[in-house]
Design brief:
The complex is a heterodimer of chains A (114) and B (109).
Chain A (H helix, E strand, L loop, with lengths): L3 E4 L2 E4 L4 E8 L5 E7 L6 E7 L2 E5 L6 E7 L2 E7 L7 E8 L9 E2 L3 E5 L1
Parallel strand pairs in A: 2-11
Antiparallel strand pairs in A: 1-3, 3-8, 4-5, 4-9, 5-6, 7-8, 9-10, 9-11
Chain B lengths: L8 E5 L4 E6 L9 E6 L6 E6 L2 E4 L4 E4 L5 E6 L8 E4 L15 E6 L1
Parallel strand pairs in B: 1-9
Antiparallel strand pairs in B: 2-7, 3-4, 3-8, 5-6, 6-7, 8-9
Classes of the chains: A mainly beta (114), B mainly beta (109).
């Protein structure tokens, strides 16, 4: 099974709301990622978890809060977002070590901040 | 952070073979070269990976010269459904992937 699932598929939230994005994989991967993608742009790395520990935070604003409850799950908690945070949020997973660390991506959550 | 360079866009016609080249001058000795395909509003999809020489699967072929400073993704007999953005992001030791601009392939009828 090479599937990464993400929920919800679409999310509309106001600037004062709190919401969470969820990601799940069952490939035994110990590295998980959050990316943000704006229209016609490449995915931008936000966070990397390696063995359930946050290893990379690409200077992401604190209104985005990642969480890795276990090796299969990854959450992204959202609070007090701005309209410019509207984007496609992608989750991915890969082997944490080794030379061939291909990433498997979920379908993404389309987020609209109003 | 290692980066790669690709053409921004390419046009092709149905039935043609398409070759997209990626240069990655800073690739680490042990790292593999990986290509992804992305359709609009979907996550990128892993399509092929190799270390050197040639790799072929049901989707594409990947050619990597001996110096490994570049790679060429070859799509045989493209169709309209191959219209997508193709990426060759380099990994680094900290699992930090930089996708770059990718190559937007436009297949025309």
């Amino acid at each position: 099974d090479t599937e990464v699932t993400q929920t919800p598929k679409h999310l509309v939230m106001g600037m004062t709301n709190k919401k969470s994005l969820k990601c799940e994989q069952h490939m035994g991967h110990r590295a998980m990622y959050w990316y943000k993608q704006k229209a016609k742009k490449p995915p931008e790395l936000m966070f990397v978890y390696s063995y359930e520990k946050l290893s990379i935070n690409e200077s992401v604003p604190s209104r985005f809060s990642p969480e890795c409850p276990n090796s299969s799950l990854l959450n992204l908690h959202l609070h007090a977002l701005q309209p410019e945070d509207s984007a496609l949020y992608l989750c991915a997973s890969s082997q944490a070590e080794g030379s061939s660390r291909e990433q498997y991506f979920g379908p993404g959550t389309r987020l609209t901040v109003t | 952070l290692a980066k790669t360079t690709q053409p921004i866009s390419m046009d092709s016609y149905e039935g043609q073979e398409v070759n997209i080249t990626c240069s990655h001058n800073n690739i680490a000795t042990n790292d593999y070269i990986t290509w992804y395909q992305q359709f609009p509003s979907q996550g990128p999809r892993f399509i092929i990976q190799g270390y050197k020489t040639k790799v072929t699967n049901e989707v594409a072929s990947l050619f990597i010269p001996a110096d490994r400073k570049s790679s060429t993704l070859s799509l045989p007999r493209v169709s309209l459904s191959d219209t997508a953005v193709y990426y060759c992001p380099p990994p680094d030791n900290f699992n930090k992937f930089y996708f770059g601009s990718g190559t937007k392939l436009n297949v025309k009828p």
